[in-house]
Amino acid sequence: MAADLNLEWICSLPRSWTYGITRGGRVFFINEEAKSTTWLHPVTGEAVVTGHRRQSTDLPTGWEEAYTFEGARYYINCIS
Prior knowledge:
InterPro entries: WW_dom, WW_dom_sf
Distance between the termini: 26 Å
Number of helices: 1
Structural class: mainly beta
Strand order of the largest sheet: 2-3-4
Domain WW: 11-44, 57-80
Protein name: Pleckstrin homology domain-containing family A member 5 isoform X26
Radius of gyration: 14 Å
Helix content: under 10%
Largest sheet: 3 strands, antiparallel
Shape: elongated
Strand content: 35-45%
């Protein structure tokens, strides 16, 4: 399950956690104490839905690049 980014998500971060946003618009969470990052909110364990699908000019016509909640890249054939 995933959730939309909102103020409640930001306010519920534990003290040692912050968040960042990739150039592609994906939200990730940073544990400053452990010096680690994750796609999943540290309290809820859910990824934030930000519409992290994008069309790329490097892909054949009809294909889009997307990411799983764990951050793995995959491709979608939008024509078939």
